[in-house]
Every structure is written in structure tokens, then in C-alpha cells.
Amino acid sequence: MSIEIKVPVLPESVADALMLDWNKAVGDSVSRDEILVEVETDKVVLEVPAPADGVITEILQESGATVTSGQVLARLAEGEVGQSTDADQASHQPVAEAPPASGGAEGDPLSPSAQKMAEEHGLDVSRISGTGRDGRITKEDILEHIADSVAPDEPSAPVAASVAEGAPSSGSVPAPTVSSGMTGSRETKREPMSRLRQTIANRLVQSQQTAALLTTFNEVNMQPVMELRSKYKEAFEKKHGSRLGFMSFFVKAAVSALEKFPLVNAYIDGTDIVRHSYADIGIAVSSPRGLVVPVLRNCESMGFADIEGTIADFGQRAKDGKIAMDELIGGTFTITNGGVFGSLVSTPIINPPQSAILGMHKIQERPMAENGEVVIRPMMYLALSYDHRIVDGKEAVQFLVTIKDQLEDPARLLLDV
Question: For this structure, is 121 an active site residue?
Fold first, then answer.
């Protein structure tokens, strides 16, 4: 019985997806639920599993193809056993001189393109750390390892060949003549942007071109929050099973400010203003594929433990590439924390169609004047970027002051004042 293998159902907001590398070839036997291929959307990477045991009889869409929801990718003969030809077997064997390319230091699998590249360059993959899903070694990991392995005073093989032949190598831009005093590789590489990176780029440009962006700043004394957190963090973790971080305080403070200034929680649709009676707050999370923004739903009804547990779960699943697509859709307001990377101050760009984004930054001890005396306090700069078409400057400033007041007197978060 022949079974069609199709693209998973995509949400209405996702038009198409990009085919990544196939893990199987025509004639290969597969087991039920074995991952055959992955498809990349502008939000997440989706796995396409085998619907049953059998043999791949036909592949209709090759790696790199653009596909749509429900499109047939391949066909599977259910219950049959594959018999690879000599040519197929040879194509799956590693080069004799090359080290085995079956996995990294922990036995992590390689993508087919990564395995082929490792074999071509005779690489010891046990020395390469994988950044792909579940630790898989990707083509990008191989390229980075090759680049790191180039000696400072030796050009890479493609560049050396191009110099010897007097012509640029394939995929490389010819290096200009330099003085003999300069050393190091001058190879230039070109690679396609991922769907996620393309979407991030397009949305950021869209935000700059379609909104009247403005940023207002303030600073907050984090000592009260830090003291409260230090006092209760062990008891909090023991009871709720998640650590007490700073983000829950900022989410609760943002909810309070959004209730006082609802236009910050609204957006423009044509000539209409769309208001929300709820606060769905996106939390920017870094992942190996780039920035993703999973959404905390109905934050107005969430407690500190709910917020911290959900954010921790988002962070881990973003690292593993397992954020669900519906968790990235929507959101009425966004919080981003550049401070975890050392950012002291920035002007974050709003996520359309939202009207504002709050930027957190690095906590840094600074001298502050209090009651006529100079004291050292752990301070953080806050930035609120907003769409001036819908949010006036006065509202934006007062919104940020509200967050500052809530954080400098955390009892307000519990008493809702």
C-alpha cells in the first residue's frame, strides 16, 4: 500500500515552508515515526515523521524546494523492506581515509549534508559540537569548524587554489592584492539566509517603514527586587520547582502599566484602533536559529510561579528547536532582555502590529544621589520603543514611570496599587 508523506498543516499566517535535508533516500527502509525530513517556516522548524514502517519509493520535493501546507513530499510503500543498490550503498559509505562521520562526541547524528562535507574534508566529527536539534551536527557547524581550523598564516584550500590558478575559486570573491605584512585568511563565503532570518529582517524593515518609532528611557533601582528575590528564592524554588528570576517582576509590572495605559496594548489596523482586554506578552528568547518570541497568554491572570515556569520551558524548548508554531503567534506587547548579553542601553524595535516593546538591560552598580548623599545602587536602564501614531509621548513616559515605581516598591505588585 502506497502512503503519501505530506507537509504538516501550516497556520493561516504561514504561507509556505522551505525543505531542509532529507534523512532518507529512495529505497531506504524507515520505521514508523522516524524523522524523514524537516521543513523550515518563518517561525519554526517542523519535523515530518514516517506514518508507518516501509520503504521510500519516491521523493517528489528535493532539499531547498519551497512547499505549501499539505503538499505531497514523498511516497512510502507500507510494510516493504528496502534493498539498496550497490550505488546507493556506496553513496552512504564514508570515504576510506576519513574518520567515521556517524556522530559527535556524544554520538549525536549528522545531517546528510554535514556528513558528506565531513567525509570530503576528512574531519574527526567527535571534535565538533552540534548546534542543531537534539545536538545534531549541521552543515554550519562543519563550516565553522573548518574556518576555525585554518592556520593564521595559511589560506584555505579554495583560496590557495584560486591564487595558484590566477582565478577566483567557486563561491569565493577574489581577494585584493595586499602587502606582504598582512597575514590571515581572506576567504569570503556566501550562504543563503534561513527562513527565520529572512522573516526577522523583513519584519524589522517593515516596522521601521510603517510605524512612527520613538524610544523613551528611564532607569530603575533594582535593589528592592534583588533583596526580595534573595530572601525568597530558595523557598520559591522548593515550592514551585522553578527559580525566581527578574523576568516575572517585569511581566507583572508591565501588566499593571498596560492596564493603566491600554493604548500601549493596542494596535492600528488601517484607520481603526484595536484594543485588547487581555495582556499576551511576548518574551524574546535566543535560539540557535535566531531570535524567537513565544507568547505568555493572559499574563493578567498568571502568578509569579506560572510566569517563571513557562519562561523556563520556553527557553529550553527554543534551544532544542521545539517551540510550537501557535506559541509564536499573536502577542499584544513584547519584553526583550539584552542585559543577559551585556547590553547597557539600546533602542528595541517593535514587533508589528504591536505598538510597543520594553527593553531590559544590564544591571550595573552606579553612584546615585539619595537624600543628599551619594550611594551605590544596582541600576538598570529601561527603554520603551513605541509607535507614536497611537501612543503619545506623555503616555509612553508615564508607562515607563509606572514600571519603575512598581519595581522599586515590589509590594505594589502584590497589592495592585
Answer: no
